Amino acid sequence: MAKTWIVIFSLVLGMMILAGCGSQNNSPRAINEETDKCMTCNMMVANVPGSTQLLLKSGKTMVFDDLGCMIKWVEANEDVEVEKSYVRDFYTMDWIEQDKATYAYDPTFATPMAYGMVSFKIKSDAETYITEQGKGVLMTAAEMQTKLVQLTSGGMNSHDDHMHEGGI
Amino acid sequence: MRAIVSFFIIIISVCIGQVAMAAPNVDVQQLIDKTPNGNTLIIPSGTYIGPFTIKKSITIRTSGRVTFITPQHSKQAALTINRANDVTISKLHIESAGGMGIRVEQSGNVNLNKITISNETNKAKPLAQRLNGIDIFKSNHVRVEHALISGVHDGVYVEQSNHTQLVHNRVEHARYGYHFMYTKDDIVTNNYSKFNVTGAMLMEVKNMKFNDNQLLENNDNVTSQGLLLFVVQDSQLKNNQIRGNRVGIYVEHVKSTSIASNHIADNRVGIYVNNMMSSTIEKNDFIGNVSQVNSLGVDDSVLISHNYWEDFQGIPTKDKQSSQLPNVIRSPLVKMSNSVPAYLLFFRAPGMVFFEQVLGDPVQQPLIDQSPALERNLTQNEQTQSHSTVTWWIGVCILLSSIFIYVRGGRQRG
To answer: Considering only CA atoms, which of B243, B160, B251, B146 is closest in space to residue B199?
Structure first.
């Protein structure tokens, strides 16, 4: 009788361990430069401060080469449930939740898809960056969202404001 | 003869005081600064440590081999053309250990002719740590001709610049061969791109003429393709050789664009189409691609006709120019594998072929060529011929070997 209970207990314990192994991990993953591709623009995703990622409720992870590409994807896929969205600190490359970061924006800030939005973990770092560059606007997460939705929603003419600024 | 003419031009120019000659062991930056606006500077052969900056109208020529180098950890370009108009640089070699080769920013009417940019040490670096060969930013009317570039991030990167011309350039072992972002009215012709992650990337581009280029064997990376079009409109892609790439042409968000008379061969996927409108795909040859088309649905406004599909057998029309039967191409695995890539394991599985033929495509409309060509639209070019010649000779060797083994085996038994 005791043996039967030991067997049952072992089975239940094993199942609990296996179930624990399958639990969803909500932390962001490392960028793999060899295989990662932006879900919006199809460019390679480099392990740089501009890269971002989404964790979906389905457990899938999606990476983007630019914050603008991530905002564009979320706008175009409203039916997909997003668990967490991450950006990176410009100086340390630590992953930060999109809503908890501070942003510096200028159309001339160099980012992979030229959206010009740079993210920071600490607000004072964003202010320092703007001072160093001698240009740019400090933005909250909500202001960043509004700006990038505006920049990405124009379809084929979304970046017309980037054109016609050359020498001649 | 040309050398004699050049010699006399230099002598005459020096006499009339329009040409400054750089002597060895001099500061090139100082010479650039001293050359009057609109005049010519001739740099003698030698190696010069940069970086150098041009902020005026100037023509720079070289006498012999001139190499500009930048220190290992410099992020600056070996040569920067900043806010200058009417600049011409000819026959310059750049060995840029850390930084870019040439950066053109907020300038106009710039001609870069016969520029070589290479770096052997760069090739060991990850792609993300390299910088671009020629970087054109917010500059209009820039022409790059006969450049040879290898081992860099992007061979030629053009951003927010209009009327750029790339002619007869060659880029190898880079991330993207030619990369355009937010540009319009550009001409890219007779360029060569091989062994890069992507041959050419056209992103947010309007009114581009991309003709007579060769995009070959860009296939080492899982994200590789010959040519990627992302948000492109009013453009023309004609007479290009797109061969041996992972994806030949990747089309996404393309409008009012013509893809015509291209040779698309030996790629894993010939053409990938997602969201194309009011455009044409005609008179292309699709030969030897593992999958001719991967399509996520094509708008009714896209005209697809007279393409040659090697794996298609139709019924000829009276003039034998095309088939009476349309070529209906389904690719049901594309959408499924987009969400779960592991489904690609079922590619060409007998069950999937049955599923495609009997049940059709439950996910999206197929791509239909209403009048496919039954003979190749394009005559075989020299490269294709040489490829066929090699194959023919390999076949002959195998045949001779087989005969030898057969005859020898027969004798031994006898």
So the answer is: B243
